[in-house]
Design brief:
GO cellular component, one term: cytosol
CATH superfamily: Electron Transport, Fmn-binding Protein, Chain A
GO molecular function: coenzyme F420 binding; oxidoreductase activity, acting on the CH-CH group of donors
Radius of gyration: 13 Å
Helix content: 25-40%
Order of helices and strands: HEEEHEEHE
Keywords: Oxidoreductase
InterPro entries: F420H2_bilvrd_red/Heme_oxyg, PPOX_F420-dep_Rv2061_put, Split_barrel_FMN-bd
Largest sheet: 6 strands, antiparallel, barrel
Length: 126
Amino acid sequence: MIRELGEGKYLLLTTFRKNGTPVPTPVWVVPGESDEVIYAWSAVDTGKVKRIRRSGDVEVGPCDVRGNPKGPSTKAHASLLDETGSDDVRSRISKKYGVFGWVTVFGSKLRRGRTGSIGIRITAAS
């Protein structure tokens, strides 16, 4: 199921606060190098990145641009990538989302610098 989510346009990435409250967020998603890996991208100072840093337990599912679920979600594990991995995710995002993706990634680099955004690796829960 993870691979199919990477083919979609948006992913509903649900992270969890310390008290267990779910926080769903729609993100762009790209497929990974295997059927068990997908990637997302975010600014480093967002709540979801802080929650992933604390605990990589997440749920993922298909959604629309507004975060309305379009199917079932599944448990997964998220981890934050290093600079090289994040560069690869930004490149994949730019390719998949075309001009809009390129403009968004380029604008992020101008506002935040190269290290102002981070790639997120998502794998199926074991």
